[in-house]
């Protein structure tokens, strides 16, 4: 994806996936029939306020642009770019809904997982390929 978009690939495996003209960015990809993106394994914080701060400052809001690609037969079929504020607009309510159950310790997987749907990507994103 970085090669096609003209981005610089990150030097290590933690942090940004690549760097575009505005800095670090996040990449998500799928081979599903319709484009979508999943943020899995989000650590649960002690309070909702800490959780919200973590998502805004350290997880989602840290990267200005989030790029979502859909692959068909090993080739990129489409790529969309969303601004982090739009991703947060989508993700925060979903995380807040999951938070009590995840925090209670009764969930099979105690981490938060958020899916950004095709409808949300099309509503808030800009197709770049």
Describe this structure as you would to a colleague.
With 129 residues, the chain is α+β, with helices and mostly antiparallel strands. The chain has one domain: 3-Layer(aba) Sandwich (PvuII Endonuclease, Chain A). The protein has helices at 2-5, 48-59, 84-104, 118-124, and strands at residues 8-9, 18-20, 23-30, 37-42, 65-72, 75-83, 112-116, 126-127. β5 and β6 form a beta hairpin.
Strand content: 25-35%
> Which residues form runs of ≥5 with pLDDT under 50?
none
CATH class: Alpha Beta
Termini separation comes to: 10 Å
Strand order of the largest sheet: 1-2-3-5-6-8
Number of domains: 1
Helix content: 25-40%
CATH architecture: 3-Layer(aba) Sandwich
Structural class by helix and strand composition = alpha+beta
Order of helices and strands: HEEEEHEEHEHE
- Molecular shape: globular
CATH fold-level label: PvuII Endonuclease, Chain A
The CATH superfamily appears as PVUII Endonuclease, subunit A
Q: Give average pLDDT, whole number.
A: 96
Calculate Rg over CA atoms: 15 Å
Specify the biggest β-sheet: 6 strands, mixed
């Amino acid at each position: 994806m970085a090669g096609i978009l003209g981005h610089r690939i990150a030097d290590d495996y933690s942090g940004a996936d690549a760097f575009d003209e505005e800095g670090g960015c996040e990449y998500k990809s799928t081979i599903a029939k319709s484009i979508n993106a999943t943020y899995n394994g989000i650590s649960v914080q002690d309070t909702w306020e800490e959780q919200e701060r973590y998502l805004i400052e350290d997880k989602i809001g840290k990267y200005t642009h989030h790029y979502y690609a859909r692959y068909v037969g090993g080739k990129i079929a489409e790529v969309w770019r969303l601004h982090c504020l739009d991703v947060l607009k989508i993700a925060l309510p979903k995380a807040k809904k999951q938070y009590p159950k995840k925090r209670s310790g009764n969930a099979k997987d105690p981490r938060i997982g958020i899916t950004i749907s095709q409808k949300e990507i099309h509503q808030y994103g800009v197709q770049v390929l």
